[in-house]
Amino acid sequence: MSLVDGSHKKICDGWILIWNVDWTYQRTKDKGKRLLNKLGISDSKTLCLGPDGVYPYPKDCSKFVNCWRGRPSLQRCAPGTLFNAAKRVCDHPHQTVCPRSRVAPSAESVSYVVAPPSGQKVRLRGSDAPWAGYVQIEAEGQWWLVTDSRWTLSDASVVCRSLGFTRGAAAATKGRTFGVLPGNDVRLKRVECQGDEESLGECSLERGVPEDVNKKVVGVRCYRNWVSECGPRGVRWGTKCYYVHKSSLFTHAEARMRCSTRGARLLSITSKEENDFVSELLSAVAGDSEGFHTGGVRQQIFDSGGRNTTVQPQLELSFTAWWPGWNVSASSQARALNAQLAKISDNPTHCITVNDNFPVDSQVDARSSAPAEYYFWELSNCGLKLPYVCETDELDIGCIEGRGETYEGTANITSKGLVCLPWSHPEVWPKVAHFGITRDLRHNYCRNLDGDDEPYCFTAKGTTDFCDIPRCDWRERNETAEETTCGADKFTCSSGTCIHREWHCDGQQDCEDGSDERGCRDYSKEFVKVLRKRLQGREVEKWLHTVKVACASRCARAKNFVCMSFNYEQSTQTCILNDGNIGRSGGLVDDPTWEYYERKSLAVDCTDKFVCNDGKCINSTQRCDGRKDCKLSEDEVDCEGRLNFEVRLVNGSGAYEGRVEVKVFGRWGPVCDDMWGLPEGDVVCHQLGFPTGAKDIFVDSQFGSGNSQYLMDDLNCHGNEESLADCDFAGWGEHDCQTSEVSV
What we know:
5-stranded antiparallel sheet, repeat, Antimicrobial Protein, Tachycitin, Chain A, alpha+beta, Kringle_CS, disordered N terminus, Mannose-Binding Protein A, Chain A, Mac-2 Binding Protein, transmembrane
């Protein structure tokens, strides 16, 4: 590319492309002058706050000023959007600080407004939670993104702690992790923190704009403050738990009562830091609303003559954040409160609400409003139906030492905010019953029953989840923070290297220093081995390239099911976890390359029981009871001698027909006609000495019903059995038949 006579010239495939920079600049310059003359403005700096960039157009929010080399050009946003001065982009109307009206705005009717400063220095935006998002810093009355190609967990932890998330950052993100960026303006291109700073202002900061904002914009995901110290859906901050109720609308009195019935109280904000957090919480989860009830009530006091002598809060307020109005750079809280009092009615009682949406004077729609991007206070009629926020003090759930195996506290909320099921729940108890012998499990509190990493419980989703319980001393909290810097799904080696958590105590050294295999429990001693056998039909999980001691550990520490045994093939290091064992489920088969391991604590004592061919144990009373409890029905073989089983036909015109009755345990009784057919008739006829089988079968008590109890029901014969007792049926005396359902 070369410069010729003030023009850019480029040769492409024989074509010469020429564009004259001076001509373009002159055209823009002339157009800018015409715009200034039209508006009656002599200085372009009135519209162009900088030499280059896009800026708000004071008279019409559907347009914006595009400045190049200090010369303004008026452009229009796409239909249905308005210019967002904070983000410097055309945005959805409800996201802009301009009047929202059903009538299209015009230059004569729209007033440009600027939200008052919130006093925040750092905030997170872009996610649906106040503990995650893109990092924004405030400077010169504007919010700026931060970029850094070397953004670290130490840098992110400083941001988290400055926002009240004292456990630091779980992740330091780079790029568009949280979706659409909240604006494009960047203030910092490099941040370097040691990790112990109180705020970003104490770190080494380098101003500037990087080449690729989308790849270098930074964000954080903070560790939530101890989740288990709040009730369900509670958010912990400071020493309180907050519960946002946004789906239903209530008056102030109704909201206060609903909080009280939950053992809580209406929101009471006592500091600037708390107001910042509540504002970010509501901004993230509340969506559009008309405000939220708080616990604040303000009453007017009258003298004997009925004159208003003073206006006092019902309680002393150590902090206030009254709405100061639009287009103010700063305002005292006294003036802001007076502005609130000037617009309220004569009703002697008003309630304090928090809101981020306030009216804007407009000739088009007097009810128009705009978002302030921060929740300020205002006095409202206590009878307004609004959503509300309850609060409680943090719960005293105790603390844990080490892995929390001795924890006896009352935490019953998991790290994901889910409610713990009682240990006695029908779906939980079979998995933990063997622990109930030595532990009191008549509750739903988090416990570490089997030496896992920390206390856990079962949830309604059918799986287990760890509980989020604080450590008992500061030293252990610091050690825990260091251990979790790799993330919840990783294990941190002593050297600081991160490995998959599944590799911890798997019998194979993955950390260079071997720290992943130190102090590991040898679970293989808790199993009994059977050579050249494997359990069939109860497989749940399969692990490849796993050493035997790790296979035993996986079985003993399984959470989503009760692992009773495992099969292991040494040559391929294949591990298969089973939810059954020999005595409970049977299924043991010969296999010369496999070994079978059964947990000693869950083994079944088969003494005085009937043992099926595959090893399953059943009670002796199940032998010859008509139900085939063994897979090969060996529990119902050779039973006629024990049962003294006989069959006969009664109430017919001869020995060849009649009502079918059987004798068992010395008693005669009829057979129900459910599922009765020719195969069953053939078996009866063969057993009675009629070799050609049954000619016809009848149902519905064709030969009477008799007065005895039904002894057989739901018979299912193949037709070649030697006796009716050899067929499948519901069991001796088990039936659901009426007197009219006798088979013949």
